Amino acid sequence: MKKIYIPAFIASAILIFGSCKKQLEYTPTGVLSSSALTSPTAVEGLVTAAYAGIGNGDMIGPIYSMWAYGSVRSDDAYKGGGGTGDVGEIDAMEHYNLVTPTMDAFVSRTWKNLFKSISRANVALRAVTSLADAAFPQKKSRLAELKFLRAHSYFTMKILYKNIPIFDENATSDDILQLSNDLTWEESWNKIAADLQYAVDNLPETQPEMGRPNKYAAQAYLAKLRLFQAYEQNTTHKVISINQTRLQEVVALCQSVISSGKYALSADIANNFLPETENGSESLFAIQFTINDGTTSGRLNYEDGLNYPHGAPQYGCCGFHAASQNLVNAYTTDAGGLPKFTTFNNSIANLNTATVDVRIDHTVGIDGHVYKYDNTKVFSNSWVRDPGVYGNFHTMRNQQLATSSSYFKNGPFMGVAKNYDIIRYDEVLLMQAEAYIELGQPDKALPLINQIRTRAAASTGRLKKMDGTFASNYNIQPYPAAGFTQGYARTALQWERRLEFATEGQRFFDLVRWGIAAQVLNDYISVEKSRRTFLATAVFTAGRDEYLPVPQSEITFTKGLYKQNPGY
Fold first, then answer.
1. What is the predicted pLDDT for the residue at 5?
2. In terms of CB atoms within 10 Å, which of 8, 125, 224, 409 comes out highest?
């Protein structure tokens, strides 16, 4: 979150996007076309618009906050809100029931918003390319930045929809309308990877302005892409092999970031979720938001605006994104301070007596526990909107206190100027660990995973109640070297990713990448529906529910050129 001293290139977007006939024909309106731009200043305006584009989602068309797509569709969280009919499309996602054509609000709007961001990048790329190097000394870096931004949007589309059309700035309107979404697994990932490789090759190691990606951010993002690509899927989304060459690329890319010495884990994981400590040592790339920037309400993140405790007097709305009982149970530990991999969900955890991982109190709102690091306002069950349906837990990582300088209430909805991390150093460590494990080198993964656990254990400074005690009984220890086989290490890695990024929208995509979504989620439902009866009819169908449907409006518009995903 920035105040008025934010660098100009990330300030509130002044370019207004108009309506379009269809997403692939999208063109910014109210601005000069790229062919009319001749000055570096005007071109920089288009670059600014491209940066703004990756943060231009909304509550029903999110493009960076994956709380609905990646958290509620997983075992981390329930939809929440005022019952199952409140924003029913997310309820349909939670039940894995997006097969009807009426389910077209979130799904189609996110598609549209992502293509808007891609179009902004392409317009800016054409404009930057048209300038001579001598007239625009920043040309090489700006081209690389724009390709990084475009790759980010395409990557998001890929993990959401899988089968997507991919085109660059050289495609004409006629070209675009003839492009199919029927690409092979390798073709689609490699097209996106080419943009990130260009960014790796052409971005500086250090940027003069906060918020621009550097070489290491591009390496980390390329590592993430190659990690997803390594788990090769067939046409029905089944993981059929794990590409060892891709894993070696992940190791090399992550090692470059780690050995640069530019990044480190924050001393307290809380620093990742507070505006006062954003853009710190752990943040490789984040979408920048603003407040007090001379505009009425700043440039804020509203994608998480539904996800505040409903009954809390400082908020008043809306109670979405409730932590699941399964997630709460997953934070419990055994007597040795390790996760209870096989028994964690045998019963409802008694949080008064159980020992837990510290990260539970950075993630879940629990009655009587410090909420969002303010011990004068502990979480209360009275803050929960519909406990009869969704239970009494809430989420908090991407929420801010009403007293925060980053917070702004716009009618019933909340926006915040806390920057939104796209990739952090903790993920770099865990990506490298995952690659080592799948390469048969779990001994190299162990110290990386234990760095994450050691930091978690030390992250208690903001969790004390007013009387100086903790509401939870913390016990989290490093994994021992003895018995850290490939199979055990794989389980540990998957567990650490869940607890480290819980409710941040990564869980569902991890399960799909590993090829275990159907197994894990149907096991989750089989138990959770006895605790939350609204899940009684939920079932995950393998070969369909790993991805969202391609919006029917797009298939109709292209006269069937776009192929629908299997099962829809």
1. 31
2. 125
Question: Tokens standing for 225?
Answer: 């892409």
Task: Provide DSSP, 34-83.
Answer: GGG--SHHHHHHHHHHHHHHTT---TTS-SS--IIIIIITTTSEEEESSS
Nearest residue to 490 (alpha-carbon basis) of 539, 555, 435: 435
Report the candidate in 39, 68, 53 with the shortest Cα–Cα distance to residue 9: 53
CA atoms of 325 and 346, how far apart (whole Å):
11
pLDDT digits (tens, 9 = 90+) for 344-402: 999 999 999 999 999 999 999 999 999 999 999 899 999 999 999 999 999 999 999 99
Number of helical (H) and strand (E) elements in the chain, helices listed first: 16, 12
Question: Would you state the pLDDT for residue 14?
Answer: 32
Report the C-alpha gap between 407 and 399 in whole angstroms: 9
**Domains of the chain, each with CATH number or no CATH:** 38-261+505-567 (1.25.40.390), 263-285+293-502 (1.25.40.390)
DSSP structural state of residue 105: S
pTM above 0.70, yes or no: yes
Taking residues 30-45, report their average pLDDT. Answer: 71
**Of 365, 329, 375, nearest to 350 (Cα)?**
329
pLDDT digits (tens, 9 = 90+) for 190-245: 999 999 999 999 999 999 999 999 999 999 999 999 999 999 999 999 999 999 99
Strands 283-287 and 239-242: unpaired
Q: Which residue has the tokens 């569902």?
A: 508
